[in-house]
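Supplementary Methods S3. Input chains for the assembly prediction are listed below.
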Amino acid sequence: MEYNFTKIEQRWQRYWAKNKTFKSEIDHTKAKFYVLDMFPYPSGAGLHVGHPLGYIASDIFSRFKRLKGFNVLHPMGYDAFGLPAEQYAIQTGQHPAVTTALNITRYREQMDKIGFSYDWDREVQTCDPDYYKWTQWAFIEMFHSYYCYDEQQARPISELEEVFAMQGACGINVACSETLTFSAAEWNAMSEQEKQEVLMNYRIAYLGETSVNWCSVLGTVLANDEVKDGFSVRGGHPVEQRMMKQWQLRVSAYAERLLNSLETLAWSDSLKEMQRNWIGKSEGAEMLFKVRNGVEEYDMCIFTTRADTVFGATFMVLAPESEWVEKLTVPEQRAAVEAYLLAAKKKTERERMTETHKASGVSTGSYAINPFTKEQIPVWISEYVLAGYGTGAIMAVPAHDSRDYLFAKQFNLPIVPLIEGCDISSESFDAKEGVMCNSGFLNGLSVQEAIPAAIDEVERLGIGKRKVNYRLRDAIFSRQRYWGEPFPIYYKEGVAVPMPIEALPLALPEVDKYAPTETGEPPLGRSKDWNYQGYPIEKSTMPGFAGSSAYYLRYMDPLNSDALVSREANDYWQDVDLYIGGTEHATGHLIYSRFWNKFLFDRGYVCQDEPFKKLVNQGMIQGRSNFVYRIMNTNTFVSLGLKDQYETTELHVDVNIVENDRLDIEAFKAWRPEFGDAEFVLEEGQYICGWAVEKMSKSMYNVVNPDQICIDYGADTLRMYEMFLGPLEQAKPWDTNGIDGVFRFLKKVWRLFFDKDQFFVHQEAPSAQELKALHKLIQKVENDIEQFSFNTSVSGFMIFVNELMDLKCRKQAILEPFLILLSPFAPHITEELWSLLGHSQSISKATYPKYNQAYTVENIFEYPVSVNGKLRFKKELPLGISADEVEKAILSDDQLDKYLGGATVKKVVVVPGRIVNVVC
RNA sequence: GCUCGGGUGGUGGAAUAGGUAGACACGCAGGACUUAAAAUCCUGUGGGCAGUAAUGCCUGUACGGGUUCGAUUCCCGUCCCGAGCACCA
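Predicted structure tokens for the full assembly:
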């Protein structure tokens, strides 16, 4: 009987859906295990062959854990709000909900064909009002909260109001936009509106003026991680900086906790490192420098991480946007400074970035006093100093900072080395190592000792204090778009007093068009009845990361209409044990989600501080493009091996008409009209195409669709092949050249159960050799799955099947456990064979076979050996080796002497071919 | 520039703890079955040398050193590739 994968796969997919085989319920008799995929944005292009890579891995893991007796939660849903559907809506007038629903249907069909074991009863869609009700709810909770640094947690803002009424704002240690100082009396005297304005300074979700990335083409602001090199990530439109009043989330309050608890997570080092960079903690000091413009004297504050180098600070530099520029520019320099500021302003973000290796600047004409050397040092302006970081002003230490060095060389400023023996003739010495010199009381200390010593002195002199800076900024939460969650906020007295709307969900209104209004308002401005009890409602919507920040919690209890997740469900499912998805979310979703979860944890809504215990990044699947070579000015194509004999141009050719790099010539002629009469220079009767690894994209004709693989080879082959391709975390090109090997393997599996056309298995007891093969496999597969080394488990299966074929083994006692082992990888074929063996229940309800070491330890021998104090190793030690045979030497006598040093060997532990240990 | 990965046959990739390098698969070559093809099965396959042959020897994990009886694996230096960050003081 043939291996008819189409029929088998249809049958079992229907069976699983009908019987709800993978439905998961709270079950206190079993340990839980939560396996989560990053849910997809349902784009119009459908799934390509790269998407399922992570889904297959997580599915294998889920099925494996189920067989191991865990109660597995394995849900799937859609991140359904987003820009593409909205842009399509602007162009066509089609409601984004319609487009989105259509795409979701297509995604679902494609996923179902691959045989995933999702519990679809738990599906969520972020654009569903019953879902975004809880996104809005969390926002209101953040609105009603502030962050207390003493307690290191978010707390109800009503507590803060009490504090203000009792003691005012002095001396409180809480997160805020700007430090306010008012007394209890002043607070109590404020009007309601004034109080609301003050509270906004402390709320975790707050409305505030900020510099934003504004994209005028899209008509919306973007988050930092939605902008790359001055262009929007989606669409590639130019982005500029602009001050605007926006809703923000006080993520920066959580910077320290987000950084610290990274330690507890089983994430890859590179991903943790990316988050650390993004949070960007730097410990240093703020220091005051006296500055004089010839008329007046001020104290100017700077931030430095290298307080130890203060003796080498030979000049100061201000950011062009710094408020000090105005105060410190002396009359004679005014013209030059203004010219410089104008030139700096004109430069685009991009130009500033590409000119990092050039120093530019202008002197203010003012001087500062170095508080340690007491010398007068000039104050300069340069765009290499950023206004948005630290205080927008620095002390420049050219000997030990490469940017300051470049600047000093350019403008002939003095360079004073501070570390013994460092060479600063051609570049600065930036490393934090060595012994200090030229540094007064710091002389003789190492850099590591000098840094705290210098700060101590600064604090003692009262000219500064320790200070930690973070690069992480608050998340800008407003988007001027239609297709997102509306803010549950209305404005009571003009714009000044935003109030929450507690009746949720606040559903997205219908509008006639999806573009911004003619007056430049967001699209929601088009709705005529967008008001709450007559008051206007906020017209922005929430960004993409809003809906994805807590979806893993909603899966635990998706139908609950009283809470995001019930206490009971959250206590049982706890957190995500395994999260699989791409690295592209490292600094976006994965930061926001952790922040969101920590907030809910602080407020007692969830029981875990961190949402994702273990995280695995699947590598991106790239396209493998094929090329044909056209001889210049002809319609003749020359095969790869002969192309160097001609002058040719390289053309992309559709990978779907190429097999194993051989061009299907007839299909090529039919592909495009201009190739209809093409001629070919062949090698050995074939046209061989060239190839290259590129991004998978339509324009490169290298997109491979999973549906076609399912039709040609079946889902089981697709699943196993995607795993066999290489290590999960590694980026790799999609290459169908090897898929036949996996397909052959599955056909062999099928044939193991058939004699001629009859289903046939033996009932005899298995031999020792057969048991050994089986238990080796159990051990290997188990280890490999736990370590996400799915490619080597596939190899293990292949070896095992070849062994069974050599042994001509058809024994049920061997085949049955083998099917269970294989079922996570190839669920359809194993279900079919399992039922042919007479089982009435799905194989996913079976129990994972237990590894029995007794069948594999026979590989290891322990022999006491004493050979005149000398041991000689034979390179290859076969099974059943005797002590005499160990004696037969291969190492030379002098090597042995070195190794043993004349000791007497008592015991040697040997695995065939490999000495494990020698006891002397 | 900084940080983190990585460099193994024609190709994708194996190699728990330093112990037979190249598992498994693709491709290729040869063979069996077949009128033929497909499918299937068998044999060979890092490079070099010697031999009629079984086989033997040399060499080999980017490059140069080191530690070790023994290094793809550990250490130092160099080169190259990938990813992320990037005037963050």
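DSSP finds 29 helices and 36 strands in chain A. Residues 858-893 of chain A have pLDDT under 50 and may be disordered.
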